[in-house]
Structures are given as C-alpha cells and as structure tokens.
Amino acid sequence: MTYKDIAKGIKDLTIQGAEAIAVAAVDALSQVLASTIDQKKIQKAYNELINLRATEPALRNALNYCLANFKKDKKCANTVKKHFEESQKKIAEYGAKKILNGMIVFTHCHSSTVERILIEAHKQGKKFTVYNTETRPKFQGRKTATNLAKAGIKVVHMVDSAGRTALKKADLFLYGCDSLSSEGKTINKIGTEALAEFCNKARIPVYCCTNTWKFNPETITGFDETIELRDPKEVWTEAPKGVTIFNPAFEIISPDIITGCITEIGIFKPESIVNRIAVVYPWLVA
C-alpha cells in the first residue's frame, strides 16, 4: 500500500485495531524515511499520521519510536512489527491459561489480541464457547465471529443490547484495549464498561488484553485521553431534523472493575502496570 492508501485506510476505518493501525502507520512513515532526508517532509508526514485517529496511543508510540531511532536503526519499522508480533504470541500464551474446558467466554467488539488468545486456547485442545456482540454501529464484532468460526471455535453472536443477558451464563469476559493510562484506566469500544460493571457485580472475571505500547505517557502529567467522536452518519444516515446523533467510539473503563490486564510483560492489576512498563520500556514513560 502507498502512503496515501495507508493514511486513508486508517482514517476511514478500513484498517482497524490499535496494533494494525500502529503497524500500518509505521509502514507509511518508513516510506517517507526511505525517500527523503528532508526533516520538514518527515515531520509533516509524522504530524499527519499521528493525527489520523484520536484515542490511539499505540500509533503515537510506534511513530515516536521510529522518529527517534530511524537514524541508528534503519529497519525501525521492522523492529516495531517484530515487537507486536512477539508480544502477540506472549499475550496469547498467557491469556490462554485463563480459559478452561467448558467455559463460556464473552467478548465485545473486535480485538485481534483477544482473538489470538481464544485461538491459542482452541489449539491447545480446550473446548469452550464464545459469546460475542455485533458491536454497533460498525459491526466489528462480526469480524470476530467470522474469524473465530473459521478457526473452529463455537460462537454465539448477539446484538449489543443482549450482552447483559448473555453474561449471566458467562464465566469470563475478555476485551481489548485502545489506550491505557497511568491510573490503570483502560479505554475500549463503547459499551465495554457497562458489561464490565455487570461482571463485577456477578463476580465474573474481567481481563483487559493489551500490548503495553498502548500506554499513554501523557496521562502521567494529568492529561486525559481524547475520546474519539465518530461521524453521526455511521449511526443514522438521514436522521430526522431536530435529532442529534451522539456517536463516541470508545469509553473509559475504571480499574476498580477489572480483574487484571493480560500483557506481553505479564498479568497485572491495571493500576500497577505503569511501574512495570517503566522498567521494561523506560522510553515510554520518559
């Protein structure tokens, strides 16, 4: 894909998922780095890519890594890709241990990280069922259902409003993450918090499954991650006059209702992850 194709794909959601967006953005930046040494052109491309989507610190962190290291690491794009690939394997390995035979595992939206955990558990011979929401208005959950079914995993698919009813039978809730704060707050697809709150009351374990490069270092100084508001037409193409459409893409999930976060550096309570990140990836919190 060309630089313009990638930028358009990230903007219009053709490219979805925090890690996929980050890797694609790094690919785009690497094309610019390979074609010019003009710092103004490089900075212009960086600024454009970093502002394509709000609520995507993985994109920002990946681009920042490349911008800071491309002179000494000519293959910085490959370094970023390798990080995500190796991390995905570790998260899948750790997360699969939480899935037991006979479980009903609930998930919301499409998370490639959650998907890999479920497929890894299935490869290990574990028998379980996945309850999955369609995730309106973009129906990302259909992608999850399709991929899991192709992998041979039993999937029960439902409208979002049936989620709470379905959770009454579930044993575990796994969800992805687009942003992680220094206070342990996670940001995921709208609707996640209500489902997690129910799980908390029903004593159903809730795990956020995330790469730690989704940590937003600006939250250390009090900055709150921006919640992206999407095009109202995603919800209603021709809404009647006088009707205002509210279409937030994400919401904040409090650490108080999360059992833990499954990451490539281990499983931790959400509010303690930043301390470990500071040890493993000091540049992320510098």
Q: Could you explain the architecture of this structure?
A:
The chain is an alpha/beta fold. It folds into 2 domains: 3-85, Four Helix Bundle (Hemerythrin (Met), subunit A), CATH 1.20.120; 87-285, Rossmann fold (3-Layer(aba) Sandwich), CATH 3.40.50.10470. The protein has 11 helices and 10 strands. The chain has helices spanning 3-11, 18-35, 39-50, 57-69, 76-96, 112-123, 140-150, 163-167, 192-202, 273-280, 282-285, and strands spanning 104-107, 129-133, 154-158, 172-175, 179-180, 186-189, 206-209, 250-253, 260-263, 266-268. The strands form 2 sheets. Strands 3-2-1-4-7-9-10 form a 7-stranded mixed β-sheet. Strands 5-6-8 form a 3-stranded antiparallel β-sheet, covered by helices on one side. A hairpin with a 5-residue loop joins strand 5 (179-180) and strand 6. Helix 2 (18-35) packs antiparallel against helix 3 (39-50), helix 2 (18-35) runs parallel beside helix 4 and helix 5 (76-96) crosses helix 6 (112-123). The two termini are 33 Å apart. 41% of the residues are buried. The mean pLDDT is 94.
In short:
This protein is α/β, with parallel strands linked by helices.
In which range does the helix fraction lie? Answer: 40-55%
Number of separate domains: 2
DSSP strand tally: 10
Largest sheet: 7 strands, mixed
Based on helices, strands and strand pairing, what is the structural class?
alpha/beta
CATH architecture of the largest domain: 3-Layer(aba) Sandwich
Estimate the strand proportion: 5-15%
CATH topology of the largest domain: the name is Rossmann fold
The stretches of 5 or more residues where confidence is low (pLDDT under 50) are none
Taken from the alpha-carbon principal axes, the silhouette is globular
